[in-house]
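Homework help board

Subject: predicted structure for assignment chain

Our instructor gave us this sequence and asked us to write out the predicted structure in token form, then describe one feature. I got the tokens but I'm not sure how to describe them. Can anyone check?
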Amino acid sequence: MSFQQEGTFCVHTTASRPKLVVSADGHGVVSHAGSRLLADLADATGLTAAFNDVLRRLRPRGTGHAPGWIAVDIAVMLADGGEAIRDLGILRDQPTVFGPVASTTTAWRLLADIDSTML
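My token output:
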């Protein structure tokens, strides 16, 4: 969002997921599109940025996926019915919907490094 309305904050994202175009023509049909709305909601409400702030020290800038993005992808995967970290592959297999999704190993490292203070 780049405009300012009364009572609305300007939000500038540093990363974005692929742009989705909704149509009724039956072309480009993807599964899990509803799950993408959860990721967009996390980005729009600042949850992804808040996760980045808290988890920043675990993944220094420039080392790959932002930790907030990984945390949101894990949450979306769980909400979509995933039961294990390897289920991130469901999101990873749809890069046109979810963009780049961290590997299972990267997600494991992030989760293993979260301590009680960060929680």
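Reply (TA_rk): Your tokens look well-formed. For the description, you could write something like this. Helices lie at 33-45, 47-55, 67-79, 88-92, 95-98, 104-113. That's the kind of observation they're looking for.
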